[in-house]
UniProtKB/TrEMBL annotation:
The entry's keywords: Membrane, Transmembrane, Transmembrane helix
UniProt keyword annotation of Protein biosynthesis present: no
Top-rank taxon: Eukaryota
Gene3D superfamilies, per database record: Type I PLP-dependent aspartate aminotransferase-like (Major domain)
Record InterPro entries: PyrdxlP-dep_Trfase, PyrdxlP-dep_Trfase_major
Residue ranges of the TM segments: 363-383, 395-416, 460-485, 505-523
Name of the protein in question: Uncharacterized protein
């Protein structure tokens, strides 16, 4: 890792506004005395400060050690040099607004200048009034504003209005989308995925030798990238065996199926896209590489269109029949998500109370219906028998009815158990808090762009068990009746009676059962309404 001293001629008489060429400092494996000697020579040559890259962006993305950065900061203060940090690529992408604000660097240095802007489409310099050198000027309060206005008057190339609007919009999107946190999550997901893919292809997986950079500023070794669908930004030279990848900061980049479509080639030589230094590589750091975005968009568009066409009808039917009895996710999951994460505690308590009351009413209704159904199933022995008196009821009929009784009793017991649990928890002084804690996961997770408590999946299913048991009991009862009537028909045919009265009963009963099922399906279709996910439902006038 190398740092640069920004140099200028003594007396500031350089004909070039940016001074002379920078001097290179060698800091790897050097002692403090050797580093001081280099700084002394640079200062005598007219250097006024040090520019540090926390993440090297021209080779393999090597990350600067915090202890080494601390040494540089101390020596800058000792020689009265400005300490500047180059954040043109690392801003936002490295898990903090600026990379030097990460937890490992935050207490190490206070830079005087920060170079930034490539991510926003414009470039600039941020001045830290609390920087270790600038703070010596004692600029406080209104004096800072006067200093800023004075510097602004010296600008030779003001930023065009269109570029300023674009930059401000980009920053606003990054804040609202929580790109800082996304960069950490996406970076970790992609790095794990690339390592897994490299291991599958027979490479020795040692992260520092395969991957470089920090968070979502990713460097991939060129031979590894060549076996995947990775279109990397061009590095400093064709001889460098690394490519730089700036993945787009969108939450779907954490999903393995999306990464599979974008990166993995499934060892198909026709699908691989080796990196080429001859290809034009442009980048928009917050949105990702152009090549990667365009290729990935085409791949995802084709794949998703095929999947959507093949599963649209099935998905629609499944959603219809998950309404009512089984409840769609937006009517079971979303209420829990809302009551667990509302900002206002009173509103959380109100939503929890509402959920508790509705659930108690639902359990009461399901328990009564299940008890009635269990009573009906236990009385099947007294039903008119279609079989001859000496014939034993076929085992499929008995199996269905006994299973139906078990389902019905399980539904009654589950409804009673959950009702008692809710009443007992609600009787506690902090009952509503207890209910919420029993429903949620222990830690917050990233949902969309916010960290929220997620309802435990098993809790969501557990509170639907009584309804599922009831539906199973109904299905077993109807199946047993169908087996019974057609068993009688089979018995008559075996005795040589042919298609007699029992056959008529079987045909008419089966026809009515099918008609009832069709009407039920039509009713479900009529009652179905696609509730949007997230709980935000607008009431149009």
């Amino acid at each position: 890792m190398s740092s640069f001293c920004t140099c200028t001629k003594k007396g500031f008489h350089s004909p070039k506004p940016y001074g002379s060429n920078p001097a290179l400092l060698h800091i790897d494996g050097v002692s403090d005395d050797e580093l001081r000697d280099q700084l002394f020579v640079a200062r005598e040559a007219g250097c006024i400060g040090i520019v540090v890259e926390l993440v090297e962006t021209q080779f393999n993305g090597r990350v600067l050690n915090p202890s080494l950065l601390s040494r540089l900061g101390v020596m800058c203060a000792e020689y009265q040099l400005l300490l500047a940090v180059d954040e043109t690529l690392t801003a936002i992408r490295c898990g903090a607004p600026f990379c030097f604000q990460r937890e490992e660097y935050f207490d190490v240095i206070s830079p005087d200048l920060v170079f930034f802007g490539k991510a926003t489409g414009s470039q600039g310099i941020a001045i830290g009034f609390d920087g270790q050198f600038v703070k010596r000027f004692g600029l406080l309060g209104s004096s800072r504003s006067r200093a800023v206005r004075k510097w602004q008057n010296n600008f030779q190339k003001p930023l065009p209005t269109a570029d300023l609007i674009q930059a401000m919009t980009t920053i606003e999107i990054a804040v609202q989308g929580n790109f800082v946190m996304l960069s950490r999550i996406i970076g970790q997901a992609i790095r794990d995925f690339v390592l897994d893919q490299a291991a599958e292809r027979g490479h020795e997986v040692t992260p520092p030798e395969i991957l470089g950079g920090l968070e979502s500023l990713i460097f991939v070794r060129k031979d590894i990238a060549g076996e995947m669908l990775v279109m990397g930004a061009k590095t400093a030279g064709s001889w460098i065996p690394w490519v730089k990848w700036l993945p787009r900061l969108e939450k779907d980049m954490t999903r393995s199926e999306v990464l599979e479509e974008i990166i993995a080639s499934n060892s198909n030589s026709d699908a691989t896209m080796p990196y080429s230094d001859d290809l034009p590589q442009t980048r928009t750091p917050l949105l990702g590489n152009n090549g990667q975005s365009e290729v990935a968009a085409r791949i995802r568009s084709t794949s998703r269109s095929v999947k959507n066409q093949s599963s649209r009808a099935v998905s629609f039917i499944v959603h219809i029949f998950r309404g009512g009895l089984f409840s769609p996710p937006t009517l079971t999951y979303d209420p829990l998500l809302l009551l667990l994460n509302h900002d206002d505690q009173d509103e959380r308590n109100r939503l929890t109370e509402k959920w508790k009351d509705n659930k108690l009413q639902e359990l009461n209704f399901v328990g009564v219906v299940s008890a009635l159904l269990a009573n009906v199933l236990t009385s099947t022995g007294s039903w008119p028998n279609l079989l001859p008196p000496e014939t034993t009821t076929p085992w499929p009929v008995r199996t269905c009815w006994f299973c139906g009784i078990a389902f019905a009793l399980a539904s009654v017991l589950t409804a009673a158990d959950q009702t008692i649990r809710l009443h007992r928890m609600a009787g506690h002084r902090d009952g509503l808090v207890l209910i919420r804690q029993s429903l949620r996961t222990q830690d917050r997770v990233l949902i969309g762009t916010e960290w929220k408590y997620r309802p435990r999946k098993m809790q969501v299913y557990a509170w639907q068990l009584s309804v599922l048991f009831l539906a199973g009991a109904v299905l077993c009862m109807i199946s047993g009746m169908i087996f019974l009537v057609w068993s009688a028909v089979a018995e008559d045919i075996g005795r040589g009676k042919g298609f007699d009265d029992n056959g008529k009963v079987a045909v008419i009963f089966t026809s009515f059962a099918l008609i009832t099922a069709i009407i039920f399906a039509l009713g479900q279709t009529t009652l179905y309404y696609p509730v949007p996910k997230g709980g935000d439902i607008e009431d149009s006038d």
